[in-house]
Amino acid sequence: MREIDRLTTDAYGIQSLLLMDAASAACFAAISARYDGDLADVPVLILCGKGNNGGDGAGLAQLLTEAGAQCTVVLFGLLSETQGDARTNFERINQSADLLLIECDDATTFDQLAEIDRDYDVIVDALFGTGLTRPLDGVYRKVVEYLRSLREAREQTNAESPFILSVDIPSGLNADLPDPIGPAIKADLTVTFTAPKSANVLPPACDFGGELIVADIGSPRQLVEETAHPWMFVTEAEDVKRWLMSTRYVPGSYKNAHGNVLIAGGSRGYSGAAALCGNAAMRSGAGLVTVATAASAQPLVASGSMPEVMTMALAETDRGAVSDDAVDHFLKLAAKKSTVVAVGPGLTSDDERTRRFVRQIVERRSTPCVIDADGLNCVAPWPTSLKGSAEHPLVLTPHPGELARLLGRDEIGDRVKAARQFAMDHQVILVSKGSRSLIAAPDGRVFINPTGNPGLGRAGSGDTLTGLISGFLTQAFATLKEKTDPLAAVISALYVGGLAGDLAARKIGMRTMVASDIRDHFSEAIRLLDASGERPSGGVRELTG
User: Fold this and answer.
1) Closest Cα to residue 122, out of 22, 46, 33?
2) What region, left, alpha or beta, does residue 262 occupy, with left being phi > 0 and alpha being psi -120 to 50 degrees?
3) Going from the N-terminus, what domains does the chain have, and what CATH number goes with each?
4) Whole-angstrom Cα distance, residue 139 to residue 432?
5) Sign, Cα dihedral of 484, 487, 488, 489
6) What per-residue confidence (pLDDT) applies to 110?
7) What confidence category does residue 161 fall into, taking pLDDT thresholds of 50, 70 and 90?
8) What proportion of the chain, given as a percentage, has pLDDT over 90?
9) Where are the alpha helices (DSSP H) in 315-399?
């Protein structure tokens, strides 16, 4: 980011002070929106470091004061120690009769300040930006403790806690690392600039940032592409909207036009997972869905499935799990009728004959294939010879334990690095589920999904996601044909699934929501993203009167 800022000025002639002013304006817009534009007499405390992050905070103080807010600015250091654009902004507020600037160069001074006024409605963290590489200590650790105690005191009296905004990144985090390096400020909102940083989007560091706004402050997009050579991205609503638009239901659409999902799942005692997967695939928009399951499990899978979902029986072992005797029959059905095959939900991996079934289905596949749950366990550790292809892509959807087994390890380590390397080595699309689920592509790109909440970590949510991914892939291959981008379909499915979970949590609560609640909110999530594409057009209307 420092290099991008430098080149923005040197190569494009955009003054660095203008970039700082734009950053301040972005933070002002976020605070103003919270108060519907009425900031009159709102008490604000702005905590500033001596660098450019503090300069952003100083510029913000000017804008807030002009809007009528009552601002106190604490500079951790002396005005004489500031430099460049930050110095310019601090000089401006020092000359303002409407702004209080306090220089704070030791912990004792801050302790005294903290006792003066505990009634701030807004607190701005503009201490450190993206350059921090060591843990906070001294007075800065005191700041973290002060803000924590302030919130705890408000909670004990049921008073509203101050709204904390962090500029660029919560102070105390290393922008390049997903793990906190020490104590850090916990914000309600973070406004970052030009592009998100790793700590903005990867857990557990991202949990300190609250809601994230990525603000364009004027750096040319071309510079980001040329200078950063990005390989990690955050999915945005517009990305998903474009995919939904490309696969819309249009006049002349019928069931085969939107593809057929064939699911191998379920076993005696584990029929629910297969039903959840089939129901999600049906609700996702696929034209046809069939669940192939162990013969003894078929009646239960059928009773738990939507009426629109078909079921069929497969040869089974004496334990009631799918047997390798079913391989040829399943592959014949897949080649004849299915667009995408999903393998795994409720299948179990205890029987060697079931494991052979899964391995042969994956090795001999003639369609795109999604593998989840016991399907993954049946092929773990992943064989080095088994690779995906552009014609018949493989999509793997492991949770952390399953990913570790695929890797043949006890621990994953760096999740992004592990997922990315696995996807490149085996040419697969890998969905690493968990807090901030991510998608690693065969070409090395990684996409962080920003939707979802802890309520998604319930039994059946993974089966529901597998159905949604399979359904979106099926629609992509059926409608776009040779123009299909399977990665875009998987990215869209993960985003929609997380958004549906967020909508369910708002209505029901995270504690009580279950997997079927997520499925029931697919419709609302899709209509939020592509409302016009979901409204019927044409038809005949009778005029009266």
Assistant:
1) 46
2) beta
3) 2-230 (3.40.50.10260), 239-533 (3.40.1190.20)
4) 39
5) positive
6) 73
7) confident
8) 83
9) 327-337, 352-363, 374-378
CB-count burial class (<10 Å; 0-12, 13-18, 19+) for 190: buried
pTM above threshold 0.90: yes
Instruction: Retrieve residue 394's tokens.
Output: 């493989």
- State the amino acid at position 301 in one-letter form: V
Write out the DSSP string of 6-24.
Answer: HHHHHTT---HHHHHHHHH
Task: Of 197, 140, 206, 204, give the one whose Cα is nearest residue 171.
Answer: 140
pLDDT one-digit tens code per residue, 366-407: 999 999 999 999 999 999 999 999 999 999 999 999 999 999
Residues in the chain: 545
The answer to whether 392 and 402 are in contact (CB under 8 A) is no
Which pLDDT belongs to residue 545? 55
How open is the CA angle 523-527-532, to the nearest 5 degrees? 140
Cβ atoms of 120 and 44 closer than 8 Å:
yes
Residue 276: strand, helix, or coil: helix
Q: Mean of the pLDDT values across residues 227-240?
A: 92
Strands (E) across 281-371 are located at: 288-294, 310-314, 340-343, 369-371
pLDDT-derived band at 155, boundaries 50, 70, 90: confident
Residue 347 Cα distances to 292, 311, 373, 386, 413, angstroms:
10, 15, 8, 21, 28
Radius of gyration of the chain (CA): 27
